[in-house]
Amino acid sequence: MTVPPTPRAAASGVRAVVPPRKVVRPSAEAPPADPRCAFRPVPLAGDRPSSCGEGRAVRVPCGRRARRKAARGSPGGVGRRTARKWPTAGSARGRNQYWTKLFICRYVAAVFPSHAPPLVTAPAETSVLALLLTAGPLSRVELARRTGLSSTAVTKAARPLIDDGYLHELPPERTAPGAGRPVNPLAVTADREFFAGVKVSADALYGAVCDLRAGLRATADRPLGEDRGPAAVSALIRELVDELLDARPEFRDRTRRLGIAVSGDVDRAAGRVRYSVLPGWRDVPLAETTARATGLAVVVENDVKALTAAEHWFGEGIGTEYFALVTIGAGIGSGLVVNGRLITGAYGVAGEMGHLCIDPAGPRCHCGQAGCVEAIASSGAILAAVRAGTGREDLDFDGAVRLAREGDPVARVVFARAGRAIGTGIGILVNLLGPERVVVTGEGLETYDLFGEHIKDSYAEHCFKAAARCPLTLRPLPWEEWARGAAVLGVQALFP
C-alpha cells in the first residue's frame, strides 16, 4: 500500500513509488487550503474541481500517430507500446505534486507577501486570453488568424481556461450566410474574478471594484485625514477596500488582487514609492504594508502609467501598438506604449513628460530642475504665476481661472504660456515615439478653453513633418476612472 508523502518529504523532493498500472481513484476530499498563501492552492468560489487537479480526467494520447503506436504489436491494439496514463490527483504522485506546489506557495507568500503568481504562463494561453480580453468574443478561427497559432494550438490553449471558468463558449453562430457549419465564439467570463483598485490623490482615496473586462462594479471614496503618513494611509486603504468588497457577497470570495495608483516615482517590481510629492512620501514599501493589512496581492504603479494601461487595453488605445496618454492638472504626466507594451524603462520613470526641460531660465520645479513642463503648466504653477503677476496672494485657482475668463491680461498670458509648454512637451513625445494617437486627460481639461488653442499651435510647431498627423483626443475622466486604472493593474498581473 502506498503511503501519502508528508509535506516535508514532498518539499525535499522525495517521491512516492507507484506500482505500475495501478489505478488509484481520486479522493473525495482535497487537502485543506493554507489561509496564509497569497495564491490559493484551492479553487476560488465557482471553480470546477479540475482547477486544483482534483478529479482531473486521465489524458490519453488520441492523435493518429499515437493510436498507431498504441496499436503496434498486436491485432487488438494492446502491445508493448500502450497509451501513457497521467497520474490523477488522487494518486500518490498527484498528492506529491500538490504538497510540492503548496510548499512553493507558502514560501512565496512568506518572502513576497505582496505578490501572486500569474494565471497563465504559456505563450499560447497568454496570447489567447489577452486577445479575448481586449477584442473578444472571437471564434477559434479568428483567434488563430490574429495570433498566428494553429487552430489546434488555440483549442489546446483555451481548454484549461474554459475548465477554470475564465472563458466560456457562446451559442453557435454563422459567420456568413451559407458559410458552412456554425462556430462557437469564445468569450471572457467577466465575473469569474474581481479586482480592487485605489487611486491615492492629494486629499482623498478613490476606490473601485472591476470585473475581468475592467467593467466598473462598485465605487467608493474616502477623504484623507490630517495624518498623510504611509501607515495612516494604508489603514484608510484597508477600510476602503473592506467597504468595496462588502458591497456584494461575491466580491470578497473572488477578489485576490489590489492595484494602487499613486503619483511620482514608483518602483513597481519592488512595490515601493520612491518619491511622491502629493502625499509627501519617500521610499515607502506600500505594497508590502497594504498586502499585510488587506490579505490581497498588491501591485503599486505610477497613477498615469496605470491609467495609460487601462486606456490601452480597454479604452481609446485598443488595437494600437504605439500609444501615448498625457495628463494635465495638479501635475503633468504621461504614459507610453511601444510595441503594445507599457514602457517603464530601466529605472521605472520613462515617459515623464512633465519633467522635460523646455525653458532653462524658467521657474524651479519640485524635482530640482528649472523650466520643467510641470513647473510652468501645472495648476499650482499657474496659480503661483497669476499671484505674482497680479499681487493678489489671496487668490485660489478658481479665482485665477475666473480672472482669465474675464479678460485679465496677466492671467491670460500665464494660461497661454502653460498651453505652449504642454504643446511643446507633447510634440517632443510624438517626435520620439511616433504614436498612432495621443489622449489628453486630467482635471486640467476644465480650463481647456483658456489654453487649448495654444496647445494645438505649439504642438503643430514642434512636430516633425508627418508626425503632426498624430491626432490629439481630449478625454475627460473622473477620479473613478483612475481607480479603474489601478484595478487594471491586477488584471494585467494575471499575465507573466
Quick synopsis:
With 496 residues, the chain is α/β, with parallel strands linked by helices.
Give a description of the structure.
With 496 residues, this protein is an alpha/beta fold. Strand 12 (333-338) and strand 13 (341-342) form a beta hairpin. The two termini are 41 Å apart. A 5-stranded mixed β-sheet has the order 5-4-3-6-10. A 5-stranded mixed β-sheet has the order 13-12-11-14-15, sandwiched between helices. A 3-stranded antiparallel β-sheet has the order 7-8-9, with helices on one face. Helix content is 38%, strand content 15%. It has 4 domains: 7-111, no CATH class; 123-188, Winged helix-like DNA-binding domain superfamily/Winged helix DNA-binding domain (Arc Repressor Mutant, subunit A, Orthogonal Bundle); 195-309 and 483-492, ATPase, nucleotide binding domain (Nucleotidyltransferase, domain 5); 320-474, ATPase, nucleotide binding domain (Nucleotidyltransferase, domain 5, 2-Layer Sandwich). The protein has helices at residues 7-11, 64-71, 92-111, 123-135, 140-147, 151-163, 230-245, 249-254, 286-294, 303-314, 373-377, 379-390, 397-405, 409-433, 448-462, 479-492; strands at residues 167-169, 186-188, 194-200, 204-210, 216-223, 255-262, 265-267, 272-276, 281-284, 297-302, 323-327, 333-338, 341-342, 437-441, 472-474.
Topology diagram in text:
Blueprint: H1 7-11, H2 64-71, H3 92-111, H4 123-135, H5 140-147, H6 151-163, E1 167-169, E2 186-188, E3 194-200, E4 204-210, E5 216-223, H7 230-245, H8 249-254, E6 255-262, E7 265-267, E8 272-276, E9 281-284, H9 286-294, E10 297-302, H10 303-314, E11 323-327, E12 333-338, E13 341-342, H11 373-377, H12 379-390, H13 397-405, H14 409-433, E14 437-441, H15 448-462, E15 472-474, H16 479-492
Helix pairs in contact: 4-6, 5-6, 7-9, 10-16, 12-14, 13-14, 14-15
